[in-house]
């Protein structure tokens, strides 16, 4: 398995707009081979931001890579332009992880 995460530092007062943007968009993920599941995570509040993370689980790294080159990826990110940048501070920070152990 492979986990792909993007961290967002959301400006205080923009949490509802950020969550609405994410929860109402069409991710196009269900049509992508190797997709397992997606989570939008809300983390701790700091003085200048609230931390959020998009957390996507893939069958393997190759499935994730194929997603990043797909039409579904382009469609899902089509509206991720500068108009949404006012909701968060800086650029999203990507982190990718190969799963070493899973306990169920």
TL;DR of this structure?
By secondary structure, the chain is α+β, with helices and mostly antiparallel strands. It is built from three helices and four strands, in the order E-H-E-E-H-H-E. Strand 2 (35-45) and strand 3 form a beta hairpin.
Average pLDDT, rounded to a whole number, is 89
Q: SSE order, as H and E?
A: EHEEHHE
Question: Kindly, what is the distance between the CA atoms of the first and last residues, rounded to a whole number of angstroms?
Answer: 14 Å
Beta content: 35-45%
GO molecular function, one term: monooxygenase activity
InterPro entries: ABM_dom (IPR007138), Dimeric_a/b-barrel (IPR011008), Heme-degrading_MO (IPR050404)
Pfam families: ABM
Keywords: Monooxygenase, Oxidoreductase
How would you explain this protein's 3D organization?
The protein has 104 residues and is an alpha+beta fold. The chain has a single domain (2-98), classed as Alpha-Beta Plaits, CATH 3.30.70.100. It is built from 3 helices and 4 strands; from the N terminus they run βαββααβ. A hairpin with a 4-residue loop joins β2 and β3.
Write the layout of secondary structure elements.
Blueprint: E1 2-10, H1 15-24, E2 35-45, E3 50-58, H2 61-68, H3 71-76, E4 88-98
Antiparallel strand pairs: 1-3, 1-4, 2-3
